[in-house]
Every structure is written in structure tokens, then in C-alpha cells.
């Protein structure tokens, strides 16, 4: 029977009259349990993997093999397949997704295009900011954002594809012009179970690419080639070390920025650290593969600022504080190595860092060990403890610190106090790294998000201490 569907929903509580409810097996509950509730709320089309025992004659049931994939396709059709009407590029990898898509967004705006962005920090349709709830939202939200972008004249959209989203089919139904792989290191093993499963999740994005798209991978990450196996898209690589299609050489790397040689052109960028050379190269490669002119791209790219809360420098009263979103062992090590690399003399590095609650526990001791290894002083503190006891998280972190580093490590549960203490410890010339929260403006404790912004607290504390 033909039906007019008023809306598509995957949450029974949101179903209205004539809705199509898609029952999804989630991580907490099975959406099939809520089919009846959805019908009571007005849904008269049910898309499900297993049919309920008692069928309602007034309702149309559509049985599918994978409801998440079906949701993606339905959402795309519902919003008139917007991904086919603009150039959509997805960026995946453990670290560097937000940095890369933000640089791409800024670059394409500078190049004069109308552009969309879907990222951890914010979603954007040209200058309009639409708050972000996930790194990669659900399929319906993605499609409605893309539709809005098309309506506003956008020709390009750059989006992050998190491994959670790929596995949960949030990216299904999307037609990509290209995908980028930044790197893969330890994270989210609580969710994926094993590192191999985590790699497989990232690879699923590349398996989904059409023939006329490109797959641009980091040649210096040994999993880059894995992404390209059996991938139908045009294979492209970038890197600093291994032979690759897009290559760069770091000429200088200071606290002010990076100087790179790309295709025999020397360019200065505002971003700091070798990891940003990778991000910039991925952006350069993507722009060229999308048909942009190399010289123009490099010229515009040297102007862009990068993402909020990524190596954000605050210099006050002779102390340099860096607020960075490093929340994985690899990111923390990269940021600390970058800081070590730009040290000029006897300045100390003081690191304030925590690990999130209800997230991968295995990274806790490793991150604390790395923090202590590369810093002169370390303050372990809270970072979104969520439903866990903050002190339990901190003890798990502390357990990873090398005994020789015990003396330089302290635990201060309250993040504000921890930042203040770092400010007290710092002398002129010292560098404070406040890691883990970057752009976040809250501290999540037991279901409540309390306002908290590392950048603001750092400024407050340094100002306060200077007056004392
Ligand atoms: C663990 C996880 O990823 N969960 C995501 C998932 O929800 P879920 O599978 O847990 O859902 P569930 O509660 O089991 O419910 C199953 C189904 O029943 C439905 N339901 C449920 C109750 C009810 O009364 N009626 C009803 O219909 C739900 O709407 C759902 O469709 O699907 C939801 C819809 O897409 C997401 O909002 C939700 O993200 C949660 C909030 C989350 O915190 N996710 C994080 C871990 C995440 O996705 N992070 C990544 C970034 C990671 C990175 O750093 O790389 C991201 O992309 O943001
Ligand atoms: N290419 C890179 N390689 C390694 N580390 C990086 C890279 N780019 C950024 N980082 C570090 O990782 C942190 C997170 O970067 P970014 O926000 O770009 O990653 P992300 O992949 O979007 O993370 P999330 O999965 O949380 O959305 C940065 O603050 C920086 O410390
Ligand atoms: N996308 C990541 C962000 C972690 C940021 C950190 N501040 C935390 O809360 O653990 C996650 O949800 O695991
Ligand atoms: Mg991100």
C-alpha cells in the first residue's frame, strides 16, 4: 500500500502522526522494543529487521536486513539526495579530523566558494553556525544539514566521519566525492573491542566510496594502505616520509608556525607542529583533487587559522599557555613533542591533563606516562568524569606514571584548581599545556554539563596571579 510519510524517526518518543519509525538495534537497547510505542504515537510505517509477533493491519511493515543502512538511504531520499548535489568529502582517522575539515572549510571559503562543515566543534553553512552534538551526527541530521547547505548555495561540504558513526551506519546513503584518512592510533577500544575492529571501522568508509571519487590516505601511517585495499576510488597518498602523491618537507617548526616545502614552494603556515604538516598536506591534496589550482591553494592556505582549541596559544605575563584537545595518547605525545621541539632554553613545561569518564580506560595510564615523560611538572585532573568517580579515573592514570617521574606528578581533582596551580608553578618563559578539552565549554559530571572553558580559566588564572 502506498503511504504518505510525514517524517522519518528512529526514536519512538519523537514519532508523530504518519511517521515512519525505523527500529535500530542500539548499544543500550533494541529499538524493536519500541515499535508499539511508535505506533501509539502515530507512526504507521515501521522499518525493522525483525517483524513483531502481532502485526497491526493499519500499519505498513518493511522488513530490511540492516535498519541503520536503510535509515541512511531513506534519509537521503527524504531530503532529495543532497550529497549528490555538492562535493562532499569525509575525513576519518583517530586524530586530525576536526583540524583537517576546519582547514578545508576555511580554505574553500577563502577561495570564494559557499561551503558547509560538519565537525566536533561546530556545524556550519557558510557563516551560519549550527551547534554540534556529535563529531558525526545521525543520518537524518546529516542529510538535513546537507539539504540546508544545498539550499544556501553551497558547492562543497567537509565532514568528519568518526568510527562510531561509520559502524553505526550514520554515513550510509551519502555519496562522497572523496575521503581522507589521517592516521590510526589507540582510542575507543572500549567501543570497538580490538584494534583490528577499530581499523575495520575506518576502512568501511573507504569501501563505501564510488569509482569516480578519491581516497587520499596518509602514506606514513602503515594502515593508510589498508584503507586502499579493494577500494574502488582513485588511490592517492600524502606524507612527509614515504613516497607519496602529495609530499612536503618541514623547513622550520617554531612556536610561531611551520615552514613547509610543498612542490618546491616554500610556504609559511600559522599552525604549529609536525602533525599539522600532515593536516595541511591532506588539505592541499584534497583541494587539488577537487580541481583547485595548486598555487592559489597554497597562497590561501597560508592565511588560515585552524580549529578552535587546537594548539590555542595564550601568552600573558611572560607565560605561554597552550590549550589543546589532545585526548588520546598519540595526540598528547605529538603535542608534547612539538612543545619540546620549540623550546629555546631552560623553560619548564607544565602539563595539566585528565581522561574522560565512560570512555576507553586503557588510554588512562598511557596518557599519564606520556605527560610525565615529556613534562617537568604534571598535574593530573578531571576531564568530563561523566558517571565515574573522578578519583578512580585519576588513580588509573597515576598507575601509568614511571616511578622516576612520581616526584613531578600531582593529582588535583578540581580542574580549575589544577590550572591555577599550574599558573602558580609557572615562572616567566615557562609553557603550560592544558590538554584534553580544547574547544569544550563544559565539564560533564553525572549527566550535568557545568560551564567550563579551559581558555577562559587559563586567562582568568594568569590575570589573577599577576595581580597577587
Ligand atoms: C554509543 C553510541 O555511539 N551511541 C549512539 C547511538 O545510540 P545507541 O545505539 O546507544 O542508542 P540506544 O539508546 O541503544 O537506542 C537504540 C535505538 O532505540 C531508540 N529508542 C530508545 C529509547 C526509546 O524509548 N525509544 C526508542 O526508539 C533510540 O532512538 C535508538 O534508535 O546512536 C545515537 C543516534 O545516532 C547516538 O546519539 C548515540 O550517541 C551517543 C549519545 C554518544 O555519546 N556517542 C558518542 C560515543 C559518539 O558517537 N562519539 C563519536 C565521536 C567519537 C570520536 O571521538 O571519534 C561521534 O561521532 O560523536
Ligand atoms: N594529524 C594529526 N596527527 C596526530 N595528532 C593530531 C593531528 N592533528 C591534530 N592532532 C592532535 O589531536 C588533537 C585532536 O585533533 P582534532 O580535533 O583535529 O582530532 P579529531 O580527529 O577531530 O578528534 P575527535 O575524534 O575527538 O573528533 C589536537 O588537539 C592535536 O593535539
Ligand atoms: N570524541 C571524544 C572526545 C573526548 C574529549 C575528552 N574531553 C573527553 O571527554 O573524554 C569522545 O567522546 O571520546
Ligand atoms: Mg573531531
TrEMBL record:
The cofactors it requires, by name, are: Mg(2+)
Protein species of origin: Indibacter alkaliphilus (strain CCUG 57479 / KCTC 22604 / LW1)
Which positions bind ATP? Answer: 93-99
Q: Which residues bind UDP-N-acetyl-alpha-D-muramoyl-L-alanyl-D-glutamate?
A: 12, 135-136, 162, 168, 170
Q: In this protein, which residues make up the domain named Mur ligase central?
A: 91-286
Keyword Cell cycle tagged: yes
Gene it is expressed from? murE
An annotated GO BP: cell wall organization
Q: What is its EC number?
A: 6.3.2.13
Q: Provide the family line.
A: Belongs to the MurCDEF family. MurE subfamily.
Q: Where is this motif: Meso-diaminopimelate recognition motif?
A: 383-386
Question: Which residue range or ranges hold the Mur ligase C-terminal domain?
Answer: 309-438
GO (cellular component) term, any one: cytoplasm
Q: Which reaction does it catalyse?
A: UDP-N-acetyl-alpha-D-muramoyl-L-alanyl-D-glutamate + meso-2,6-diaminopimelate + ATP = UDP-N-acetyl-alpha-D-muramoyl-L-alanyl-gamma-D-glutamyl-meso-2,6-diaminopimelate + ADP + phosphate + H(+)
Pathway the protein takes part in:
Cell wall biogenesis; peptidoglycan biosynthesis
| Residue numbers binding meso-2,6-diaminopimelate | 359, 383-386, 436, 440
User: What are the TM regions of this chain, as residue ranges?
Assistant: none
Residue ranges occupied by any Mur ligase N-terminal catalytic domain in the UniProt entry: 5-79
Keyword terms: ATP-binding, Cell cycle, Cell division, Cell shape, Cell wall biogenesis/degradation, Cytoplasm, Ligase, Magnesium, Nucleotide-binding, Peptidoglycan synthesis
Protein known as: UDP-N-acetylmuramoyl-L-alanyl-D-glutamate--2,6-diaminopimelate ligase
Which residue positions does N6-carboxylysine occur at?
202
- Coiled-coil-forming residues are none
Could you tell me one molecular function GO term of this UniProt entry?
magnesium ion binding
